[in-house]
Amino acid sequence: MTSVIGRTTSSVLHHHIKHCWSATRIIGVSKQFANVRQSVLPLPSKPTSAPVCPFGTKFSIMGKPKVVFVLGPPGSGKGTQCEKIVKEFGYTHLSAGDLLREERNREGSEYGALIEDNIKNGRIVPVEITCALLENAMNKTIQATGNDRFLIDGFPRNEDNLQGWTKKMADKVEQQFVLFFECSEQQCTERCLKRGESSGRSDDNAESLKKRFNTYINDTVAIIKHYEELQLVKKIDASAGPDAVFEHVKAIFGEQK
């Protein structure tokens, strides 16, 4: 199966983002999603009509891409474990954060300043941008390699992300499960500060980390609970070293067909 969404050039991507951004740039964006509703999340449902903001054509109904969401607090080891999963099980790793940072650094990006402001202040980037980048990356991977198994790391991170993904992508992919790495704030902070000595990331500092953890607790924890209610969460204790953690990860992926 190599059917893809369609055009993947940078100009097409930004046409899609701009189209959706203008159609949805109300209330929530100006407040940077600071007041995201904390209520119990509704069960996801498939859209009954074509989405209002098209990013492209749908994936083929046959052989939908398989998706695993990878969630956890900053510094819980999501990126490290995703690298190991890629080598062992052949998935393609898509980091929402990496894609946003690449777009932020892309010369001429009209969303670079907005992305940087959100990342630096520990806020969540508007879902229209993140979904477009993820879909485009999946598109290019399937077109180039034929690989249709994806780890989506660091997404969805709040209710708006979940609703945006459900509306845009739920009927295009096969959701396998959510891989959740659990780790204490203290240990995660120590890891990020250590990483920040060489990473060059603008959010690997004490001030940004505190904001990122607040965002995680206030927004992302509700997403994990939502998927737990659907019995889709595979929880891993991420406090041990990378190799020990991966032994538990291997057991989970070994059960997948």
Brief rundown of the structure:
The chain is of the alpha/beta class and 257 residues long. The chain contains nine helices and five strands, in the order αβαβαααβαβααβα.
Write a structural description.
The chain contains nine helices and five strands, in the order αβαβαααβαβααβα. It is α/β, with parallel strands linked by helices and 257 residues long. A five-stranded parallel sheet has the order 2-3-1-4-5, with helices on both faces. Helix 2 crosses helix 9 (242-254). The longest helix has 24 residues, at 206-229. It is globular and about 40 Å long. The two termini are 17 Å apart. The model is unreliable at 1-62 (pLDDT under 50).
Q: With helices defined by DSSP (H or I, 4 residues minimum), what is the helix count?
A: 9
Distance between the termini: 17 Å
Overall 3D geometry?
Answer: globular
Tell me how many strands there are: 5
Radius of gyration: 17 Å
Walk across the major sheet and give the strand order.
2-3-1-4-5
Assembly of the depicted chains: single chain
Q: Order of SSEs, N→C?
A: HEHEHHHEHEHHEH
Q: What integer is the average pLDDT?
A: 80
Structural class: alpha/beta
| Percentage of residues in DSSP E strands | 5-15%
Query: Unreliable runs, pLDDT <50, ≥5 residues?
Result: 1-62
**Main sheet attributes: strand count, strand direction, barrel closure:** 5 strands, parallel
Helix percent reads 40-55%
